[in-house]
Amino acid sequence: MTVRAIEWDPATDRLRLLDQTKLPGESVHLDIKSVDALVDAIAILAVRGAPALGVAGAMGVVTALDEGAERGWSADEVLEAVDRIAAARPTAVNLAWGVDQVRGLIDQGRDAVLEAARRVAVEDEAANRELSRLGADWLLARVDRPRLRVLTHCNAGALATAGWGTALGLVRELASRDRLELVYADETRPLLQGARLTAYELAQEGIPHVVQVDGAAASTILRGLVDCAIVGSDRIAANGDVANKIGTVAVALACREAGVPFVVAAPWSTVDLATASGEDIEIEERSGVEVTSYAGVRVAPAGSEGFNPAFDVTPARMVSAIVTERGVVEPATGQRMIEEG
Ligand SMILES: CSC[C@H]1O[C@H](OP(=O)(O)O)[C@H](O)[C@@H]1O
After folding, report:
1. What percentage of the chain carries pLDDT values higher than 90?
2. CATH number of the domain that residue 97 is part of
3. Hey, whose CA ends up nearest to atom 15 of ligand 1?
4. Mutate to test the pocket of ligand 1, among 17, 125, 154, 192 (most ligand atoms within 8 A of CB)
5. I need a surface site. Which of 21, 85, 114, 282 has the fewest CB within 10 A?
6. How far is the CA of 92 from the centre of ligand 1 (A)?
């Protein structure tokens, strides 16, 4: 079983999060007792990754019901608290999607909401395993090499989902088939999800990998050191434009120039058919201090401000494949995301 980022803890009957800001050095869990605590955990990326945010959003509705019962909130006050969870981060469609999967059951009571939230988690992990199989089949049919060398950006692993992972789920599937040679993991400034979290997952499972600075990705690809790039996503627009961690579009540009596949792995819950194109995706702007400092130590001069968009958009024309549990779409050929998927 892969590392668990999120669970509904039977011992406390509360949402329990693995605090990803403490990894890889410490394995610390947060018992979420209030909506404020969950919103804060999302804001500081203690829980992060689009599918994981969907699960946290769904389970957070139970947290809102419990806090409302303790504090005597009206039905409207409970819904206002649920809305705060859904709005805690703007780019990943999964957060609001996860809340929406269960909020309509509130009038059926806590048990119904918790059962539905748990189902969101189970279905996410199942989707990740299915898309990993489909993605490995797609890649192995196109890359003529005994074992693949893969570049990935950020963390789209078990820590970013309910389990197994999306981009790293595909990596795990390749490794299980003995078709993986090496993973180049971009460190992913400024919060180092790659160096801290992707490396943590791969090291735990003995999957061969190296960590590289983000600035090395393009030359690693252009030097012919990788056979493909596989990344996750936070929101996929109807036309196949893909929002993902800042730095992803640079990887896609290099893949197109080098003629290697740029693959996006994501559950269908990340596809947002209501968003026509990447131009309509809100990009989260985070504090510039995350760029000008690291681990509390300022690295830029006092007079320098940080510019910190957390995501970028890769145009559909640069995306070789979007792999979901419903199948593979090839946006670079003009294919669009459709409900039948
Ligand atoms: C499997 S989706 C993971 C996705 O989420 C990450 O963003 P963040 O760490 O800020 O939540 C990044 O975009 C990953 O690709």
Report:
1. 98
2. 1.20.120.420
3. 232
4. 154
5. 282
6. 8
Say what the ipTM of the complex is.
Answer: 0.97
310 shares a domain with 213: yes
pLDDT over 50 (residue 64): yes
Q: What is the dihedral of CA 65, 69, 70, 73, to 10 degrees?
A: 90
Domain that holds residue 58: 6-124
- The verdict on the CB of residue 48 being under 6 Å from ligand 1 is yes
182 in the same domain as 270: yes
- End of a domain among 94, 124, 154? 124
- Does 25 share its domain with 120? yes
CA dist., res. 147 & res. 128, Å (int): 22
Domain for residue 94, yes or no? yes
Tell me the one-letter amino acid at 128. Answer: N
* Active-site annotation holds for 234: yes
Backbone torsion region of residue 262, taken as left when φ is above 0, otherwise alpha when ψ lies between -120 and 50, otherwise beta: beta
Residues 212 and 279 in one domain: yes
Instruction: Quote the pTM value.
Output: 0.98
What is the domain-level CATH number for residue 281? Answer: 3.40.50.10470
Predicted confidence at residue 340, as pLDDT, reads 55
Reported as a single tens digit per residue, the pLDDT across 12-60 is 999 999 999 999 999 999 999 999 999 999 999 999 999 999 999 999 9
